Amino acid sequence: MPAATLPTPAKRPRAARPKVDAVLVDAVDVALSAAREAAEHPGDVGEHLAATMDADRLASHTFACTMRGYRGWHWTVTVARAPRSKTVTVCEVELLPGAEAILAPEWLPWSERLRPGDIGPGDVLPFRADDPRLVPGYTPTGDEEEDRVAIEELALARARVLSPEGRDEAAQRWYAGSRGPTTPGSVQAASDCGSCGFLVLLQGSLGQVFGVCANEWSEDDGRVVSLDHGCGAHSETDVEPHPTDWPDDAPVIDEMTVEIVDLGAQPAAAADATASAAASQTEPVLETESQAEPAVETASQTEPVVETKSQAESADDHDGVTGQAEMTLDDSVQETTSVETAAAGTTDDDAPEDDTSEGGSTVTGPTGTTGTDEGQDSASQGSVADA
Questions:
Q1: 372: which of 170, 204, 315, 357 fits an S-S bond (Cβ 3.0–4.6 Å)?
Q2: Could you give the CA distance from residue 45 to residue 93 in angstroms, rounded to a whole number?
Q3: Do 343 and 323 contact (CB within 8 A), yes or no?
């Protein structure tokens, strides 16, 4: 029995490479001239890159493109010649993208190119009669009474309504979106929207799964949310009491102490200083008398005049001189002058004898003189005279 032999695979015919045409390959100047003529500016055509044979007596010359915005593009000039002819003919000139060229995205129709949120104020979508998401809302029957009940009483006046396909797409989109149960805020919420008092349910079959939030404190206010969605503004939830941030749980605030701030103290002091300066300028006589009589000023500071007054009253009882030696701290300059005049003619000469007498109690006058009880009148009057 002869041995079995495997069938030999049939050989595929190789595509014959086009024969290099020296006339076409050397036609660089012809191709360059054609590329510059097709370009907007002659400088948009760069250096020669390559020459390739596309078929017998058909070649392509490639030139770099130097136009701005066309990085990676190149000019392609196709040339050919007739059999047994040496004349080169330009077939076409094209600007083609290379491997690194920047290309526009693939063209899509407007219905596939638009995305939710692309419609802005003033934009209008074209009418789609074959929109699968809509179905006719009501088809008139021709009966006026039946059509009136359907349109006026049942409110079926819309030309088209949601189809089952459109309703399912909306429900899936809402449930999987940011108002569904899978958002981070909904997962952390203590209760869902189904038990919230701010939820307004939708009508129809969509109301079994969705509602509209009417809570102004919620980030979902005025938006469709699923019943198992949730947030922190639920009407029936509460938070545990937060511990105080103060260092003391029950801080003591002293509300009885009142701190008085006198905002007009400095202006008042300045006004008093101005008034004193004005008074000192308008009354130079009193200032001169106070400077000329330091004894009276000394007496007012040490307050010996009160003591002298009491002693002088006792002396006046013996001598019969009353009223002239009575002085107080508030007497005017005229009274002091009258006392000096009255005391000048009495016992000024007897003052030394009183100073040298022995025995008895001594009385100290405003000028520091001392005397016996018998010379009290002379000492008091002498002190006033010295003043």
A1: 357
A2: 12
A3: no
- Residue 137, CA atoms < 13 Å, CB-side half-sphere: 12
The Cβ of residue 369 has, within 10 Å, a number of other Cβ atoms equal to: 20
Q: What is the mean pLDDT of the chain?
A: 73
Label residue 240 exposed, middle or buried (CB < 10 Å: 0-12, 13-18, 19+).
exposed
Rounded distance, CA 375 to CA 373, Å? 5
User: SS3 for 75?
Assistant: strand
Beta pairing, strands 199-201 & 160-162: unpaired
CA distances from 294 to 8, 116, 224, 314 (A): 153, 104, 100, 27
Helix H or strand E segment including 281 = helix 265-282
Could you give the count of Cα atoms lying within 13 Å of 20 in the half-sphere of its Cβ? 5
Say how many C-beta atoms besides its own lie within 10 A of residue 137's C-beta. 15
Burial of 366 (C-beta count, 10 Å sphere; 0-12/13-18/19+) = buried
For residue 346, the model assigns a pLDDT of 44
Report the pLDDT averaged over residues 334-352: 45
Quick: pLDDT tens for 257-302. Answer: 887 888 875 555 556 666 666 655 554 444 444 444 444 444 444 4
**pTM of structure:** 0.39
